Amino acid sequence: MLELKNISYAVREGDGQLGILNNISLTIEDNKLVVFTGPNGGGKTTLAKIIMGLVRPTSGQILWNGQDITGLSITDRAKLGVSYGFQQPARFKGLTVRDLLTLASGDEKLSKDRCCQYLTRVGLCANDYLDREVDVSLSGGEVKRIEIATILARNAALMIFDEPEAGIDLWSFARLTETFEQIHKDKAATMIIISHQERIISLADEVVVVGDGAIRHRGSAKEILPQILADTLGSCPVLTKEVKAL
Ligand SMILES: Nc1ncnc2c1ncn2[C@@H]1O[C@H](COP(=O)(O)OP(=O)(O)OP(=O)(O)O)[C@@H](O)[C@H]1O
Ligand SMILES: [Mg+2]
To answer: How far is the CA of 86 from the centre of ligand 2 (A)?
Structure first.
């Protein structure tokens, strides 16, 4: 179980402080699929980075299976089964896709078959990619899918995906949502997926809408989806303006 208790995060701005997250509390039970959604700049990535340990909260506590992990490093959290996929993944010159999957799995002798399974789940063909370096020669969508494959290979108890849909074509996206659905059905991991996609939001046990650094709504997908759609229309001046006849 993951518990966030009164998490706040502020950065220094000039002489003052700029609040990014404000008193966020949230509990996520084991094997649940929770989607964080909400407007750009709302604080979703910052919250995910705080869970992973990439960003230290200004105040508040993070408990993972009852253990206070607020002061732990990324590596220590990873050892406890927390994994995070970046919104914009890094490239690793000199490392091949196979190297990355092997490192992630912790199995030095990871077979080609297993690599192939992970890559297939994100819509890539192992034969074309296993020996490719994860450098600038790969496209944005390819790097993103390879990173998601490494999270799957890590087989962590808590998987955090930051906008897995970004830059991914429709066919690979369909494959990916099936993968999330399967992990969820197998109760194989707790998943936090940051997403703006209706298809992913509809898979969630709980949807948490983060805006202006706070939780604005939370509830089941059925409850929240219509509200999100209504909010979207409400905040778009083009859609709310009366359409004048030509
Ligand atoms: N170190 C920092 N210094 C200044 N501002 C920051 C810092 N980190 C985050 N922010 C700001 O905090 C806000 C929240 O950023 P965050 O990346 O968490 O948003 P997000 O909800 O993931 O948005 P998106 O949907 O665009 O990915 C943004 O306005 C961002 O510019
Ligand atoms: Mg983000």
So the answer is: 9
